[in-house]
Specification:
Layout (H helix, E strand, L loop, with lengths): L28 E3 L23 H7 L8 E3 L2 H14 L3 E9 L24 E7 L36 E5 L14 E5 L3 H8 L7 E6 L10 E10 L6 E5 L4 H13 L7 H13 L5 H11 L15 H12 L1
Parallel strand pairs: 1-2, 3-5
Antiparallel strand pairs: 3-4, 4-6, 5-7, 6-9, 7-8, 8-9
Helix pairs in contact: 4-5
């Protein structure tokens, strides 16, 4: 059996429920080399699955496809496995993508739809990596917007509640127009190939997208359990990969407001506009204030959000997080 310490001595480990972070994955090469080497047959038909105690842990971290670790029986097979692993070790983080609501309507391409399968499909729930490419100059990945938490931060709490390492991101299969406006930053992450990316690419509709939202724990937020959308899944124009676009929180409400601010009001907001913006800010998790301030400053409205606005975290949590990031 594989016994893992649930209380890791590493700084910050109490922030996640599991003994690993979303950017840590485990791959297993289990060596079962016989004492006497038999002459290797020329034909190698893949590497067998190993059913040792380490296999489920690989699966949990997103390191391998379900229940898969390599059972290595010969030196030649070891080389093959190492080459395969080198291709899999990409920088990124693991996310659970889960379908919310009904399946999409079939694409009408003149083909007769032969018995659409009922019940859960592999693409409905995927535990997969999004590639987070480091900045070529600094080696550090740069993202503008966070992925929302599954809780609403309590300003009076001296600590943060532990969260699951892999966030659950729900996507709805309703076709939407991808939204972008001038100068507003967004982040774009490619999804690791999976049944979900295959399903989206087979639909051959690169001009539409599916919205992604974060699940809120009951009564932890000021609104419904399913949070507001923070991004969307979209096939690339060349239909060779699927990307997750991460936008500001509840962007379908914010983007038209910002568009009006610059195109209609020329960066001089009216009282009515300010009221709409204030009511938007009330539904936005407070840790989005920093990135939003930076974004509107880049867009040409430096004084839109007051400097004394609270960030929704207690002083002890803010100073602890600063200390952790230095460590």
């Amino acid at each position: 059996q594989l016994h893992l310490p649930l209380n890791s001595p590493l700084p910050g480990s109490e922030l996640t429920k599991e003994p690993f972070r979303w950017d840590q994955r485990l791959f297993a090469l289990v060596l079962r080399l016989p004492g006497i080497t038999a002459p290797e047959s020329e034909q190698m038909t893949g590497v067998p699955v190993d059913d040792s105690a380490i296999t489920p842990m690989c699966e949990v971290t997103g390191g391998e496809c379900p229940g898969r670790s390599y059972c290595v029986c010969s030196p030649r097979m070891l080389n093959q496995c190492l080459e395969s692993l080198v291709q899999k070790v990409q920088s990124g983080v693991v996310i659970n993508f889960e379908k919310a609501g009904p399946d999409p309507s079939p694409i009408d391409d003149g083909q007769v739809d032969i018995s659409r399968p009922f019940g859960p499909q592999p693409w409905h729930s995927c535990h997969k990596l999004i590639y987070v490419r480091p900045n070529p100059k600094t080696g550090v990945p740069i993202g503008h917007w966070p992925v929302p938490e599954s809780f609403w931060p309590d300003q009076n709490s001296p600590t943060l509640p532990p969260r699951t390492s892999h966030p659950v991101v729900k996507f709805s299969c309703t076709d939407c127009e991808p939204m972008v406006i001038d100068k507003l930053p967004f982040d774009k992450y490619e999804l690791e190939p999976s049944p979900l990316t295959q399903f989206i690419l087979e639909r051959k509709s690169p001009q539409t997208c599916w919205q992604a939202s974060r699940v809120y724990v009951s009564n932890s937020a000021k609104y419904s359990e399913l949070g507001h959308p923070f991004g969307y899944l979209k096939a690339s124009t060349a239909l060779n990969c699927v990307n997750l676009f991460v936008m500001p929180y509840n962007y379908p409400v914010l983007l038209p407001l910002l568009d009006d601010l610059f195109k209609v009001h020329k960066a001089k907001p009216t009282l009515k506009w300010r009221q709409s913006f204030e009511s938007y800010l009330k539904t936005m998790p407070p840790y989005y204030l920093g990135p939003l301030k930076k974004a509107v400053r880049m867009m040409g409205a430096p004084n839109l959000i007051a400097d004394n606005v609270e960030y929704g975290l207690s002083y002890s949590v803010i100073s602890y997080l600063k200390k952790l990031s230095q460590q």
